[in-house]
Amino acid sequence: MGKEKQKSNPSGKALNLLRTRLSNPNFFFKPLSDSPDTNYSKLKFIISSSVTEACNNSILLLGPRGSGKVAVLELVLCDLLEQYPEGISVIKLNGLLHGDDNCALKEIARQLCMEHQLLFSKVASFDDNSQFMIAMLRECGLAHKTIIFVLDEFDYFAQGKQRLLYSLLDAMQSVTSQAVVIGVSCRLDVDQLLEKRVRSRFSHRKLLFLPPSKEDTERFMEHILSLPVDSSLPHNYIVEFNGRLKKILSDERFKELINTYLSFNSTIGHLVRFLFRAVSYMDLDVGFLSLENLRTALSSMQRQPKLECIRDCSLLELYLLVCMKRLEVKEQNSYNFNSVMTGSFHLF
Amino acid sequence: MAAETPKKPLHSPRKPKQSPNNSTLKLQSSTSVPLSPQTPQSLISPQPPLRRSSRRASLSFSSKAVGEKPDPKTKAVEESGKCSGKTRKGLSKKETVKTPKTPNCKSDDENSKISKLGKLDEGTVEIEVKFSPVSPETLETKKRKRKEKKSVVTRAMAMRSSKKSMKEMKRVYYKKVVYDEGEFEVGDDVYVKRREEAGSDGEVPEMEECRVCFKAGRGVMIECDDCLGGFHLKCLKRPLKEVPEGDWVCGFCQARKLGKNVQFPKPPEGKKRVRTLREKLLSSDLWAARIQSLWKEVDGTYWFRGQWYMTPEETASGRQPHNLRRELYRTNDFADIEMESIIRHCNVLGPKEYAKAHDEGDDVFLCEYEYDIHWHSFKRLAEIDNDEADSDCANSDEDWNSCKEADSDTDEDMEYEEENTKNEQARPSTTHQLAANSWSGRFFGLRKIGAKKIPEHVRGHKKTELERAKATLLLATLPKSLPCRNKEMGEITTFIKGAICDDQCLGRCLYIHGVPGTGKTMSVLAVMRNIKSEVDAGSIKPYCFVEVNGLKLASPENIYRVIYEALTGHRVSWKKALQLLNERFSDRKKIGEDDRPCILLIDELDLLVTRNQSVLYNILDWPTKPYSKLIVIGIANTMDLPEKLLPRISSRMGIQRLCFGPYNYQQLQEIISSRLKGIDAFEKQAVEFASRKVAAVSGDARRALEICRRAAEIADYRIKNQISTVNSSTVKDIVTMAEVDAAIQEMFQAPHVQVMKSCSKLSKIFLTAMVYELYKTGMGETTFEKLAMTVSCLCTSNGEAFPGWDTLLKVGCKLGECRIILCEPGDRHRLQKLQLNFPSDDVAFALKDSKDLPWLAKYL
Q1: Residues in B 662-721 with any Cβ partner in A closer than 8 A
Q2: Smallest Cα distance from B33 to chain A, Å
Q3: Could you report the per-residue pLDDT of B486-531, keeping only the tens digit for each?
Q4: Which DSSP string do the residues of B359-388 spell out, in sequence order?
C-alpha cells in the first residue's frame, strides 16, 4: 500500500503542477513576450513611456475572445507595478458590471479612495464623483502618479451618451493629469461606436491580438506540458515524462488530432482549456500523458448536443420529428400540431 | 529676557554696517531693474549669455559703485519719501499708517532696539502658539528648530498667549510694506533669521569670495555646478577667458569625483571665510519663507505670515540624487513671523524661470515641488498663480478687493477667521473623517496624495528630440499660439467686447458650430484669456466668466445649479437655483450687488436639449431681459441645431453664428509645424503626409496631432529596440514617412482583414461560404440553414470533413462576437439570420491566398 502511494506520488505532483500552470495565465504568456514584435512589449512601451514622460494615452486592445488581451495586460501591469511601485494606480472596470455611467463613476471613486486610503461615501452624487475624479487626476498628476483605467468590455461603455468616456478623455487633455485609458474589447468595430466628439478625443492606438501561428502553438504546448528539470520530482520520472511527451508531440496522429481541434478555434484560451482536460484524464497509476488522453479530451469537447438528444428520443417523438421533416420537404414552413397529425401521421 | 541681552551689543553694530549695502541692493531688486545700468560695462563680460556666476561679479560691482554711504538722516528722509511714493500707487489708507513707521525702524536709538528685541521674543512666542495646534506631532524637522527657540523664551509665552486674543481684533493688513529699507509684498520670498544665531556671525557678505584668492569682486567669477563655489576666471589653474557654455565643474570637484582626497585652499591667516546667505540657507543655518500676508499689530510691530521653504536635507527622505544644489521645497507649513527677522529678499523661481535666470543675483533658488509636512510627500507645484487668478475671476476683482480693504477692520478680522478655519480643515483630524468624494469633504483627503519620493525618471533624464516632439504634440500641451483661427478669434473678440463694453450691456447670444477638433473651445478660451489680460490692464470693465460643459452634467437641469454655484459660490438644488437665477437676470434684483456682466460659455450645447426644451429656452431667454447683462456663447457640433429646436428658441439663438470649418491640409501642417518649431524630429514630407490624410478624412486637428505623436512613438520604439540590440549610435532618429504611414494604418484601418487572415480554418470556410452565398443569391442576408448546406457542399467537394451543425453554429457565433458577421443570437439555430459586416471584397482579399486552404480562392 505504502509502496503504491509512493509510486503514485510523483505523478500526482506532476498533475498538480501542470494544472496550476494551465490555470495561471501569467505563466503561459511569459515566454511569448520577449521579442519586440509582441503585443506585450509594445503595450509595455506605450504604458511605461506614458508613465515616465508624464503624458496621457488611450489604447484599445482588440481581438477575439480567448486571445489573451487581459492576460497580457495583467502581465504588463504586474511588471510596471514592480518597476514603479509608487507611480501607478490601476482602476479596473468591466462594461458588464459598470456599463451605466453613474455606477461606473461611483466605482472609479471607490477604487481611487481605496487606493489612497481615503474615506468613500456611497451617497455622493454623479457631479461629486466626477469632480472628485477630475481633482484626483490633477492631484495624482502633480504627484507624478499615473492612473491607469482598464475598461474591460469596452463596447458597453461606448453606448448611450458616453459621459464617462467623455469626461475621462476630456480630463486627459489638461497638462497636469497623467492617465492611461485602456479599452479591452472583442468587437473589432468598437472605435466606430464612439460618439464623434469622444472619438476625436480618443487617441486611437490599437493593439490587435491574434491567435498564434501553428509553430507558436507547438512551441507553446511543449513549454507548458514538459516538466521542469529542477523541480522536487524524482529526476528519472521527469526525464521519462518529457521523453514520452516529445514522442507524442512529434507523432503524426497527434498532429492530425490537434489540427482538427484548432480548425475550430485556434485561440490560446481555447487550447489551454483543451490541455487542462487532457491532463485531467491522465492516469495516475501510469503517471504519464498518453495520446489516448488527448483523444478522449477532444471527443469530450467536440460534442454535438443536438444529435445526441435525438438519439435518446422515444419512438413517438421520432415519429413526430419525421412528420415535421416531411412537411418541410413539401415546403410547408409553418405548421401546428394538428396539421402534423392530419397531414402525415396517418402514413405510419 | 536675560538670555537675550548678550546678543544686543552684537546685534546693534551689525545694523549700520550692513544697511548701506543692503539698501542699495534692495532698491535694485525692488524696482526689478536688472543690475546692468549701474554696473560699469567694461568689467562684466559683455556677451549676453551670462552664466549665473558671471552675474555675481556684476552684482558685487554694482554695490561698490553706489558705495558712498549717505548720511543716515538724509537717507531716512529719502526712505520716507520713497515710501509715500510707493503707497500712492497702492491704497490710500496705507500711506497714513506707513509714513510714521519708517523713521521708527530706522532710528539707531538704543531704547527702541531693546523694545524691538523684546518684541522679537514675542514673535517667537506667537509662532509657537500658532503652530502647535496645526501640526500636533507629525512634523519633526521644523519642530526641532522651534523647540530650540522655545527654550529661550518660555516665560514670555504664557503671558503673551493670553494677551493675544484681544489684540487680534485690531490688526491691519497690507499688501505691501516698506520695512527696514526693503519693500516687501505679499508673494515675495525672503530669508528669515534663525533667532538663536542672529548674533553669531553678524557680518553678511553681499557677494561671495573667490575660493582660491579669497577676495570678492575684481573680475568675472564662475560658479561650479557641483559645489556651488565661486572662482575668479583668472584664479583657476587653467585660467579661462570667458565663461564657458553648459555645465562647468571646478577642478576640486573633478578630482573628488575621481576619488582623490582634495582640500580646498585654506584662507589666509587672520581672515575667516565668510559664508553668503545662500550657503547658510542651504546648510540650514537660515530659513527662507514666502510671505503670505502682512499686517501691523496693535503695538505697531509688523508681522507677516510666512510659508516655509525647506532644503532637501530637511525633508523626510533627505537629499535625493536628482536634487539640484539650489533646490528648495515649498512646504504647507505656515508661521507668523515678525518683520524684524527678515534679512532680505531671495528669489525662489519655478523651473521655467530658473532655467532662464542668468543674472538675478546669488539668491536664486529653484522650487518645483511642494512638500507636505504631515504626510512627507512631494507634489509638483501647479501654475498656482494662474489658478488663483481664475478662481478670483469668479467672485472677486481688483475694485471689489480694494473697497473691501477700505472697509472697517472687522472685515479683515472676518477674513482672518476664515483663514483660520480653512487651516483647521486642511489638517488631518482623526476624530471625524469626511468622505473624500462628497462635497463636504472636498478639501479633505486630497492633501494626502503625493509621492513619497520624487521618482528618478522625472529629472536626471535628458529628453531626446523624439521625446520632446512627443511631449509637444500632446493634446494636453497648450500651444503658444493658435494658428489659422485668427479670423474666428477676431469675431469672437469683437462679439464679446461689443457685448460687455456697451453701457447698457445688451445681452447677446452667439452660436458656434463645427466638427470636433477644429479648435472651437480653445479659441473661445484663448479669447477669454486675452480679454482677461485687458481687464487686468484696466482697459475693460471686469466681468465674470462661467464655463459649463453639457456632457459633464448629470442631467440638463443641473446646469442651473452649476451656473449659480459659479456665480455665487453657494450650492442649492437646481429648482432653487433656477428661481434665484430668474430673479437675478430678469427682475433686476442683484445678488450681492454684483452687477458685472456675465459671460456664459456652454460647451456641447446639444446635450441640453430636453423633451420640452425648457432648459435651453430659459438660458437663452435671460439675455433678452433688459438688465440681465448676460452673454451666452453656445458651442456644438451640428450646424442646424437652432433649426431643429422650437421656433421660440431658434429665434433667440440662431441670429449670430460662427462656423469653424474643418482644417485643410495647409492649416494642419502649419499647426503641427508650429508646435514642432525648434525640434528636429520630423521629415517635412511626413508632416505633410499626415496632414493631407487627416484633411481628406475629417480635418480634425486632434487626429493629426495624434497621428504625428503615434508616429514619433513608433520611431522611438524602433530606435530604443535597435539600440538595445545593435548598440550603434548611428541610428536615424527622425520620423519618416514609413512611421507616419504605420500610424495612419493603425488609426484608420479597421483590423478585420488581419483577424480574418489569422482565424481558424472553419471560420475561413464559413466566411467563404457566406461570400459564395452572397454571389449566388445576390441577397445580403442569409439563414444559417442555407449557409450550412453551402458549407457542407464546399467541404465535400474539396475533401474537408464537415464538422457538424453544432460546431458550425459555434463558429458562426464566434465570428458574430467579433462583429465580422452580424448575426442573431445562436439559440435561433437554423433560422438564425446572418450577414457580412464588412464588404465581401475585404473577405475575398483576406482569404484569397491563405496557405492552409488554397481552394478557397475558387469560390471568392
Answers
A1: 698, 700, 702-703, 706, 709-710, 713, 716-717, 720-721
A2: 33
A3: 888 999 998 888 887 766 656 678 899 998 888 898 899 889 988 8
A4: SS-S-EEEEEEEEETTTTEEEE---HHHHH
